[in-house]
Structure formats: structure tokens, C-alpha cells
Amino acid sequence: MTDTAVPKTQPAPGPGPGGGAAPPPPRRSYARLAADESREDYSLRYAPHSFRRWSPGTVAGTALGGIAYLADFAIGASIVFTYGFTSGLASILAAATIIFLTGIPIARACARYGLDMDLVTRGAGFGYFGSTLTSLIYASFTFIFFALEGSIMAQAMHQAVGLPVEAGYLVTTLIVIPIVFRGMGALAKVQAWTQPVWIIGMVLPFLVLAFEAPDAWGAFGSFTGTEGAAPGFSWIGFGLGTGVALSLIAQIGEQADYLRFMPARTEANRRRWNLAVLAAGPGWVIIGAAKQIGGALLAFAALEAVGTTHALEPIAPQIEALRPWLGSFALPAAAVFVIVSQIKINVTNAYSGSLSWSNFFSRVTHRHPGRVWYIFLNLVIALTLMEMNMFAALNKLLGFYSNVGIAWIAAVAADLVINKRIGLSPPYIEFKRAYLHAVNPAGFGAMVIASTVSILAFFGLFGTYAEAFSTFIAAGLSLTLCPLIAWATRGKYYLARPNPVNGPGVEVPDITATHTCAVCATAYELPDIADCPVRSGPICSLCCSLDAECGDACRKDPAAGPVLLPLPVVRGEAPA
């Protein structure tokens, strides 16, 4: 059975003509692009140990290469210009602390189980279809920030060569396609090759500023912004600024898209593995917060020379900072740095967007033409946002988005840290359709309630202070409601039926051993395999997801009630 997309599986075998057994269903053949894992990168699957051929340091370096973006400069400058230095600095540090703490359990889960953010979300309180909404939230994160980063690159090209900004938007969109098309291998090379240029470009402006304008930091510390903010600390400014900075919380999903390729943790690599996961997972926000503060400093130093509007565009402060040392070469040097930085992040945005769209449409349509096709969908949306000049509405857009993003991330973190530790949730991540309920109210319900209340607060329904602290409301409600709902439902919506491999009293086999899928006839490692009563054999997770006609028969066995299962042992690693 072949198709240029992906055909539907056939109905379950039943009595054939004359009462005999029906012939087995035809084999599913994936489209060429969908079947090529060198491009697909196991986009909708568990990343097998055989594919995780990179060292912890290489994976971490690639993941950290993706945070080269200059949106941090624009976001930091926007926060400080609006709310002043004192409130702005406090909000940036508060947001960084929240992002770091929620990112730790998520990064470790993705790296340990070889799963991306969507698959972890499924098994961490959301259910099989419940996580489709978070796939859209994540997809919106990737195209919003692609548009933001693309706008910054277009501004640089306009300054450097006079290219109209509208044409620059198109160039910034097209330039990433060949890299993202080739997957993790190409991404790792691009991040490694461009890293020296990025490091020099990042450090040099601050070095020049330290020698040429040593009093800038002191003056910056007393800066009250450009919007008439009162001197000193303001609770309202702190709350609103934190909301803008927290829009970056979903960045952990992009880090996870790389962390899933971490090799198995062993006694030999334990320390390097732990350090790499911490640095490349939640550790990105330490660099991110420093970039926000540094970007605000550069914008402040350039404010008098370029004006407020251009000071918020990272290219102009870069030029002004470099001019004392580089003179006429300041413009091309700044432009090269900005373009390299934006390519480094936008290949990640486009790559992660293709994964999230693939996850969404595979469940809704039961078809999977391949990850690479969704690159174009993500880029078209991002290009549209750029042409609509989303850069001009930066604070409002990011402040609104952060209410939803933090409700999602906080619910997942609550399940991993609280529910799994006290037995309300299975102590491992089950992501396969065959074993999950469609919707789990623990995480999904917590996110919906928390984000709804916080959005109402964001639009001023509950007063000025609630509006300013709407993201704190989202985080607090989500962290509280997830374990409460899991406790109220006794955790029964996590697993729809027992997983026979991990059942009580069953000796856990070698999870790196491969098993052949009865539908596509391809061998996959054990964590990617489910037992399928309809196909009378093992089925891989993607074939299971794409089966539109099985009627979820495996989950309707009245004898198979919901259970909590023991954690499978990962090779070379003791159970948590």
C-alpha cells in the first residue's frame, strides 16, 4: 500500500468470504520525505538510542547555539524603556528564575526519555488529544518569534545595503529553508560553524562601551525609562515587565527538540550528562537574562544618538557601540553579527515549528506527509506577521502570549515534580496513543482554567494589580490545580490500559532491542512500540497515531482498567 502522503490503515481483520479469516491489512508505505529519518529526525516519535550518536557536549552546544537570537536585546530594552531600570531589572530576574525552575524537570524528562515537548506533554497530564492545544501554543511561539527575529534581521539588511524592509522579510524567511530541510545534522554544523563569529560579535560592543563610556552603567542604573515611569521600584511595572519577559518560557520546548538526542545517561558520562542537560535546558535563560539586560544597556547608550524607535532595534545600538573602534566598518560588522545571530535562532524556530505542526496535524487528520512540508506552513505565517509589522506591538503581544505559555509549562512541571513523586501520575512518560486517554483533566484542565482566568485579568477584568500580575496568576493556578485535579480524579485519566511491557511483576527487557511494526514493517526500539489487538501484533507509535479506523479498540477493553506502572529502566541508568 503506497501513497504520496500517508494512506489510512485498513479496518481490523474480520471474517472473510465464506467465513474464513480475512487477509492481513496491506502494509503502510510512508512518503519518501516522511520515511527518511535523516530529514524527519524522528519528528513524531521517540528518538532511539541508535540515532542519538552525538556526545552530551555536542547536543548541548547545538541547543545553546539556538539562543543566539537578538529578540532578548529588543525585549530587555522595551521593558526597561517602559518601566525604568529598577523595575525592569527586577522583572527580568524574576522571569528568569521562574523559567529556570520550571525548565529543570522538563529538560531532564526530554533528555532521559528521548521525547520532544509535545510527547512529554501528552504523558505529563494532558492526554493524547489534550496536548493538541499545546502543540498550537508551541507552534505559535515558534512563528511569533521567527517573525520577531526576522524583523530584526530585515532591519539589519536595510541598514547595511538599503534593502527594503518588506523584501528583507522575504529573504530572512527563504534563507533558513535549505538548512532546516536537512534536519539535526545540518543544524549542528551551522550552530558550530557560526559560534565563533557570534561570540566575538556579542562581546565586542560591551568591551568598547567599557573603555569608551565607563560611566554608562552608572547612568543606566538611574534611568527611569522613556514612558514617564516614576523613579525607583514600581509593583505595577514589575508585574507587567515580568509578563513580557515570561513570554520566553516556551523556549524550553525548542531546547527539548535538541535535548531528546542526548545519549543515555551512564555511570561513565553521568556528570557530563547532568551538566549538559542543565546548561542546554533551563540554563539558556541565564544567558537570555544577561542578553536582555545587556541589550537594554546598549539601547540606553545609543538613545541620544538614534532616538527611542531605533534604539529598540538591535542593529542601531550595535553600530553606535562599535563606532568608536571600528569607524566606518561598524555598520558592516554589526550587520554581519545580527544576520548570523538571526540565522542561528530562526533555523531553530523553523525546525521546532515543523515538529509542532506535524504533531498537531498527525492527530487531527491521521496523515503525515513529512515534517519538512510543515516548515513552509510555519514560515508563511511568520512572513505574514512580519509584513503586518508585529514588531510595533511587541509588549502587548508578548504579554498576552505569556499567560497561555506559562499556564502550559507550569502544568507540565507540576506533574513531573509533584504528581509523579507522590504517585498521582505514572512515574514515567507514556506518550503512545494506545495507552493514553484522549484528554487528561489534570494538566489540560489546569492549563485551560489558569490561562482563562489570567487572560481575563490581563484585560483588566479584576483590577489594575491583577492585570499587572496576570502571569503570576497563571503560574500559581496551574501549579496548584494540576495536582489537585489529579488527586480528585485519583490519577485515573493518565493511563487508559496497562502497558504489558511495564506491568507489575514483569521484568523490563532491553529497551534498545528493535521490534517490527505489523503495519509498516519497519523495526523500532521498544519504547516506540505498542501492542495492538486490532493488528494482532506490535505497532509503532506513528502508525498507531495515523490509524483512523481502529476505533481505539485497544482502549475499550473492559478488563483493562487504568493503572499506574513502574518506571522502565533505561540502559545504564537506575530507576529514579
Walkthrough of the structure:
The strands form 2 sheets. Strands 1-2 form a two-stranded antiparallel sheet. The longest helix is centred in the middle third of the chain and has 36 residues. The protein is built from 23 helices and 4 strands. Helix content is 61%, strand content 2%. It has 576 residues and is mostly helical.
Task: Give a quick set of tags describing it.
23 helices; disordered N terminus; two-stranded antiparallel sheet; 576 residues; 4 strands; mainly alpha
SS summary, helix count: 23
**Approximate shape:** globular
Rg calculated over all Cα atoms: 25 Å
Let me know the average pLDDT.
Answer: 83
Order of helix and strand elements from N to C terminus:
HHHHHHHHHHHHHHHHHHHHHHEEEEH
Taken as a percent bin, the fraction of beta residues is: under 5%
- Structural class, from helix and strand content? mainly alpha
What is the CA–CA distance across the termini?
43 Å
> Tell me about the biggest sheet?
2 strands, antiparallel
Q: Which spans have pLDDT < 50 for at least 5 consecutive residues?
A: 1-24, 560-576
Q: Major sheet: order of its strands?
A: 1-2
What percentage of residues falls in helices of 4 or more residues?
A: 55-70%
Tell me how many strands there are: 4
Q: Helices, strands, pairings?
A:
Blueprint: H1 32-35, H2 37-40, H3 56-65, H4 71-83, H5 85-113, H6 117-126, H7 130-161, H8 165-174, H9 177-181, H10 184-212, H11 216-221, H12 235-245, H13 251-259, H14 270-280, H15 284-311, H16 315-326, H17 330-365, H18 371-387, H19 394-419, H20 441-458, H21 464-468, H22 470-488, E1 514-516, E2 523-525, E3 529-532, E4 537-540, H23 541-546
Antiparallel strand pairs: 1-2, 3-4
Helix pairs in contact: 3-10, 3-13, 3-14, 4-5, 4-12, 4-15, 5-12, 5-13, 5-14, 5-15, 5-19, 6-7, 6-19, 7-8, 7-17, 7-18, 7-19, 8-18, 10-16, 10-17, 12-19, 15-16, 16-17, 17-18, 19-20, 19-22, 20-22
